[in-house]
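Ligand-bound model needed. adenosine monophosphate.
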Amino acid sequence: MKDANCIFCKIANGEIPSRTVYEDEQFRVFLDLGPATRGHALVVPKDHYADLFAIPEDVLAKAAQTAQKVGASLKEKLQADGVNIVQNNGAAAGQTVDHFHIHIIPRYKDDGQTIGWKPGELTDAAAEEILGALSAEKK
Ligand code: AMP
Ligand code: ZN
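Prediction:
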């Protein structure tokens, strides 16, 4: 399934050129146009799934394996010191392209990049409220 209006469908299927670092029947991995660091790449399925909650389990498993394999190769060949794997779902979570993708972000000592969040505090009241909401959901 492809979406005619989706830029990642077009890139993944070769209709729009990209700086491809890996390709197989199901996935294309290409360099991000707005890289966080040297070698920042995106694992993109050739079929269209909007996000983590729309992608079938078996495709998700292969996407994770592809991120592992290509991440290891980028780390080794670019001599990175670490790798962040990032995956955003929904505008509130920073998703800007509504076609599932996994970011592979090689990290270098002192690269000056920040990928993270401001830690809050898990109070007893908050924990109870959350666990209550989750168990209510189960029923
Ligand atoms: P997200 O914010 O998780 O949806 O990530 C979308 C990513 O796609 C961003 O990091 C963009 O820089 C990247 N991006 C958008 N358009 C293109 C494109 N045409 N080629 C490569 N990367 C792109
Ligand atoms: Zn798409």
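The two ends are 34 Å apart (CA to CA).
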